[in-house]
Amino acid sequence: MENFYLIIVVVLFALAISDLIVGVSNDAVNFLNSAFGSKAAPRWAILAIASLGVLVGATFSSGMMEVARKGIFHPDQFYFAEIMIIFIAVMLTDIILLDFYNTVGLPTSTTVSIVFELLGAAVAVAVVKIMNSSDQTILDLGSYINSAKALAIITGILLSVVIAFFSGALVQYVSRLIFTYKFEKTFKYFGALFGGFAITAITYFILIKGAKGSSFITKETLSWIKENTLTIIFVCFVGWTVVLQALVWFVRLNILKVIVLVGTFALAMAFAGNDLVNFIGVPLAGFKSFQAFIANPGTDAYGMTMEILNDKVKTETYLLIIAGLIMTITLWFSKKARTVTETEIGLSNQNEGEEKFGSSFFARLLVRRSLSANSSLKSILPVKFQEGIQKRFAKPSAPAGIDKKDVPAFDMIRASVNLTVASILISIGTSLKLPLSTTYVTFMVAMGSSLSDRAWDRDSAVYRITGVLTVIGGWFFTAFFAFTAAFIFASLINWLGGYAIIGLLVVAVAFVVRSHVFHKRKSKGQDSAEEIDEEDASIISKGEILEQLTHAVSVVTTKIPKVYAKIVNGLAFEERGTLKESLKKVRKLDKEAKSLKDQVPFVVQKLSEDSITTGPFYVQLLDYLREIAHSINFIAEPAFDYVDNNHKSLVSEQINELNIIQTKLEDFFKTINRLLKDNNYDLNQIEKAFGKQKDLLSSLSKFRKEQIKRIKAEKVGTRNSVLYLGIINETKNLVLYSGNLLKASRDFTTTNGVIDLTNDDL
């Protein structure tokens, strides 16, 4: 029996390593966003500083480890075997949940996940104990669950979200009023004070408050720190202020850059000190339980209660350092971490750009109400006061000649506020041994500072608010899924034993591998479009504008006839699967065409004045690509709905006519594609292509008349007629837009000699 539980302990530590990798990909990246978004330093320098912070902070998390042992349930009410069931269910759930969030690129909370997983698994085991007991009812569940502590943790996490948002908004608003966007001059006089305050706050809350959980600081040292707190704060503030001011005078030090980098280090420490428990706390608690079990040979696994977990246990420093090293390596090499980073930076971006999220009803309503409230406030405040505020928040124009991808998402004033406020809040939670969510705090501080910094203007507010609501909604899903999945897993393990553990391990590995493959394909989709099947290739590629457009047009003219042929075949043989697959590809094409169209303003802004004659052709070409995507979508969707709703089959005449159209359409697109690939716009070749277009349009007109005859003869029903006439009409539009696409491509290519532009953003 001991060997069985030894295997479980080994599995727990294996899962802990995996959880460190998966968890850090989602959570640790939050302290990198401010430095990355403001471009305070090269990527390698930021990662090096953050890595050092993680390693140092890992040794500060020893005091937090008791949350996993007794923070959610009463361990003395559970037997050793039951405790191990809880722990293995928690780790399996955590890996699956966090990997899912990493794959979709949404930040979630490892703290919330671990709290609700422990709660769900403990409730499941407790319910089984109650069911097997003759003198207990469900009302006795409170004797197993540490409901007061769990409620305090959950309340603290939710309250931290509100506090973080308003703290970030308030501090950023005051900071911007003082320094404005043109802060260079003001910083000569007040920058050292600002830096001294920020770094002193970080020093106090991280190095002093956080020291309480350190695995190597003695009680005497902690006592001395507590007795001399005010002195330490005063010395730090004066010392940092003097040092920073001297460096400004003598070496022209950029104080904001120092604050951002020190803040990154500090927040990395806070992360490791607060969140390491979420990754290794459960396996370590399982290991301590196993040590207690084998120390009492002959004891039944269902006869030994786990009062030992109520005792304070100091985690060995070497284990914390090993965990810190694993997190650091993940920080450098995780591609999923970059996906999560893009979400937060995109929502706080000061500049215009492509929005990741759409618009929602609640976001639109909130913006309308805010605009109304703003108008009412303006009617009350003096005009001079409003003008003064507006002047302080006036944004400078972007420097000319700088590529869009090189422009920081926000300046270092906001980055320093984000890091300082988040570090203070998280460090307070750590010192109080409350497992605050670093994700929630850093995210909400960043969103609050973005709001007060007017990054959410009328052109972007609805999309940014929708994004924030999506992320917050995902947080509630985290809690629900964590509790439910851990409850189910613990129940299965309790009933099926080792078989359930093996099965769930296989499921977890399969899920992680599958999501890894999905994320890899998603991230490589734009860079390696040429390496996959042309029918599945993305129309978006990198390179010069001419190369991008040539690629887009080539892929579209290759993809359309193939998809059209599948739609016709699916209608003829009523193959729902074929039509569903075609609709999926068409929607992807439509989305990509929209993405290209949305990039038009940014490209046009960068066109030189002598390229003004090329601009209209470029815009026109993308318009036609978008319309072609619309047309094929308006064919694919009704066709799928028709078969999906089991309507009557098309008559043989209609199928024959569609086959004729499909053959001619394929020939027409092959001609266009050949001309585009060969860059051959000879007049005779162009006329040949338009001759095929004319023949195809003639056939469409003829078949429309045939359908009208069938309607009059009552050979077809209303739904059949709506579908068929819709296909004929949209095919006509498709053919016309394709001809215009050929003309626009010719005009753009022949006049493109005046363009000298590279754009990697399309």
TrEMBL record:
GO molecular function: phosphate transmembrane transporter activity
Keyword terms of this UniProt record: Membrane, Phosphate transport, Transmembrane, Transmembrane helix, Transport
Cellular localization per UniProt: Membrane
A single Gene Ontology CC term: membrane
One of the GO biological process terms: phosphate ion transmembrane transport
Membrane topology listed for this record: Multi-pass membrane protein
InterPro entries, alphabetized: Phos_transporter
Domain of life: Bacteria
TM segment ranges: 5-24, 44-67, 79-98, 110-130, 151-175, 187-208, 229-249, 255-272, 317-334, 468-490, 496-513
A Pfam family hit: PHO4
Family: Belongs to the inorganic phosphate transporter (PiT) (TC 2.A.20) family.
Protein name: Phosphate transporter
Organism of origin: Labilibaculum euxinus
